[in-house]
Amino acid sequence: MIPYSLLYPITNTRRSAVRLDGLWRFQFDPESRGMGEKWQEHGLPDSISMAVPGSFSEVFTETEKRDYCGDFWYETEFYLPSDHAGKKQYIRFGSVTNRCRVYCNGVLVAEHEGGFLPVVADVTDVAAADGPNRLVVWVNNELNETSMPCGAVKTTRTGRKINAPYFDFFNFGGIHRSVWLVQTNPEAIQDYTVDYELDGEDALVHYQVVTNGESPVAVALRDTKGQIVAQAEGKEGTLKVEKAHLWKVRNAYLYTFTATVGTVDEYSAKIGIRTVEIKDNQFWISGEKVYLKGFGKHEDCDMLGKGFNYAVAKRDYECLKWIHANCFRTSHYPYAEEWYQMADEEGFLIIDEVPAVGLMRSFTNYLAAGTGSSYTGFFRGDHVEKLQKHHLQAVEEMIIRDKNHPSVFAWSIFNEAETTSPFAHDYFAPVFARARELDIQHRPLTGALEKSSGPDCCQVYPLMDFVCLNRYYGWYIHGGVMEDAEAEFLEEMDQWAIHYPGHPFIFTEYGTDTLPEMHRLPASMWSQEYQDEYMEMYAKVFDRYPWVVGELAWNFADFQTGQGIMRVGGNRKGVFTRERQPKQTAHLLRRRWETK
Ligand code: CKU
Predict the structure, then answer these.
(1) Which of 229, 264, 406, 447 is the most exposed place for a label (fewest CB within 10 A)?
(2) Residue 375 confidence (pLDDT)
(3) How far apart are the CA of 169 and the centre of ligand 1, in A?
């Protein structure tokens, strides 16, 4: 178990959280000299300023800086709040990509592998009352076959290191989410978990509160008017809510759950009372059948890279509502926590995905994977044990972090891994088992399968409660020949019906690269018209199979990738542009999804 609290930072009369975002100092360290020269103690010798949160690659104008691969450092300073005496202080990063070590006044206070989940450092014993306190972060963004996501590092002829991701998005590095200075009493709430049971019109909210002491715990649930609707005492118990308002898809109702520990701590968060079931090959949320409509997304935007920004997220939700979507997948990693809070409010469903992408040896995974031609023996070799350790760690951190969000209704354990060997099954079985054990809500588990993971050969889908398919008939396969694309697509679907009956299927990727300025009659690849024809063909196929219960198009918006002959300024499969304006097909999907 994780030795620190992953709770989202909040401020009330018992605890405080202050954002340390802004301009920090920043320095590349291509020869990895910093550690030996003790930058962690003395600070960065030759720094520039850098926006936090943000991705450094998206702001620079020079190739070497955009593509920088290796060690780099951030530095800032902070003061403790004036009432700090006798309290605990933590520095909490929403994420640091891809791995980091955090130093406070020269002392190592945290170390974290993986770039998409929080990093928490206890600085109580090293931060000085009179400040300023120096905070230095060593970061490294090199990919390898044990990192989540996977990739490799190549060296150019001039000796420059560059990342070679086994996946199709730019490997943005940096401090991508808010950094907080959190202050609590020594005895404090570490975690809480809720689970629901419906009892006629009433609901039972089973809760657990984890603290690091023995002071009595009390909990209360308030409705949207601030009225207490249920109360209980003890670290574990049940709140009975009469005539409960359920959290429903696109019709959210949020209660405020507050846990109090004696006079020392209090933590409040919004929760939604809802159930998740799979029955008759369908998803049921709070007892209502739901057909999933939406997208695979990315955390990606002009200038920001993967840096979280409220205005961008708000715009994305407005676009999602306009198009009548109700769901998205956090392809291919857990997003900033604010995304989930906003989905809770708006009633969107989320398939929460761990950063297990690129588990296949390929520098153009989309090409190899799209055609089903790859087998690279990925799950054999010395790297596997460490990779699995990182995978388990990411699953654990993700579920602990996100388990209380009503929006999160399923966990995705991987995207497009090489699932065709028995080694893949041996690798994944414990990861699925661990996820099942951790989630007391027993949300369904899945993984996204690419074309090679067919019904006759994939070793991993028997571990899944529902199956996610990423398919590109009409793009990577039979591009421009829609009738062959459709025929082969139908053949595959008929095979799934035979091989895995009784399980819901959804599509988590399907799409065409489309240039907003390109119109062609008749339709041809890359044009607006072609994206429309492709979407129409997919809709026809989906509608034939009652066990296809969701369509998440690839991608919500155009996004940045590495460079390549198939990538025109990035991946252009967005239904919206990178600036979040609709392409033609957005109108088509909007009409379909309004009534679907
Ligand atoms: C997407 C088989 C396709 C793999 N899939 C992964 C995703 O990350 C890519 O962006 C394909 C694509 O557009 O090629």
Answers:
(1) 264
(2) 73
(3) 9
